[in-house]
TrEMBL record:
InterPro entries, per database record: DNA/RNA_pol_sf, Rev_trsase/Diguanyl_cyclase, RNA-dir_DNA_polymerase
UniProt protein name: Uncharacterized protein
Keyword Amino-acid biosynthesis part of the UniProt annotation: no
Coiled-coil stretches noted in the UniProt entry, renumbered to this chain: none
Keywords assigned by UniProt, alphabetized: Signal
Amino acid sequence: MILLLLQILVSLCLRLRRRLMNLMNYLVYLSMRKKPFQPFEEQIELVNLGSEDDVKEVKIGSQLCPEVKKGLIDILREYSDVFAWSYQDMPVLDSEIVEHRLPLKPECLPIKQKLWRTRPDMAEYQRRSRAMTTLFHDMMHKETEVYVDDMIAKSSDEEEHVEHLLKLFQCLRKYKLA
């Protein structure tokens, strides 16, 4: 009789152990399950770089330390001319920068190639893309990502970000892209 009760008790313990193991595995699964991606929403504040009559607002992070925030606002005010506040502010690219030239040797005869047709809108995109690559090649993929109509300054900390913005703004002003 005692042997039978002992066997039943062992059997119940084993079942309970399996159920606990299953429960623990399920809890581990739940903790490791990928959570849905939530975009980071930083608190921002609007800063007017213009006057009360001529409002030129930019958004900056409100959590910046005061020294960095002041330095950033000072640089943005100093280089406010590099921003296109309206379509009329957008510059025309200098042909010296964006024209593609082939260095040919005078003693070599050129060979006529098959004509490549490009859609007019794609030709303009390629021209602008080539221009951005030419102008910002030393900064690209390091501290700046440059697209045809957009630029992103990258950095690992706040102080470095202000330095990268300054370098980007100086380049924009140098090539008259302001």
